[in-house]
Amino acid sequence: MAESEEVVSFLLVIIGILITLIAPLPVKDEYRLFIITTIIFIFLVVILSRFDERLKNEDNQIKDLNKRFKTIEELNDIRLNIKELQRKVFK
Fold it and tell me: How far apart are CA 36 and CA 60, in angstroms?
C-alpha cells in the first residue's frame, strides 16, 4: 500500500513541476494543454505498464506455488495408498 502511495505522490510532484515549467512558455493555450495532457498520458502509461509487469510476476509465482502444492498433495495421496496397501497385505 505504501508503495502505491509513493508512486502516486511522485507522479503528482513530477506533473506539477512540468506544468509549472510549461505554463510560462509563450505558446497558445491549446498547445500548452496538449503538451500537458501528453506528458500526463506518458507517465500513466509507464506506471501502468510497470504495475502490469508486477502483476504478471505475482501471477507466475502463484502458478508455481499451485503446481508445488498439487504435487505435494499427490505425493501424500500416494503415501496414504501405500500405507493402506501395506496394512491389507501384512495383516
Answer: 36
Residue-wise DSSP of 17-65: HHHHHHTTSSS-HHHHHHHHHHHHHHHHHHHHHHHHHHHHHHHHHHHHH
- CA distances to 2, 6, 11, 43 from 35, rounded to whole Å, are 30, 25, 16, 12
Query: Which residues constitute the domain of residue 30?
Result: 2-89
Residue 38 has pLDDT above 50, yes or no: yes
Q: Which amino acid is at 1?
A: M
Number of compact structural domains in the chain: 1
Return the exposure string of 28-52: e unless at least 16 CB atoms fall within 10 Å of the residue's CB, then b.
eeeebeeeeeeeeeebeeeeeeeee
Whole-angstrom Cα distance, residue 83 to residue 16? Answer: 69
**This prediction's pTM:** 0.55
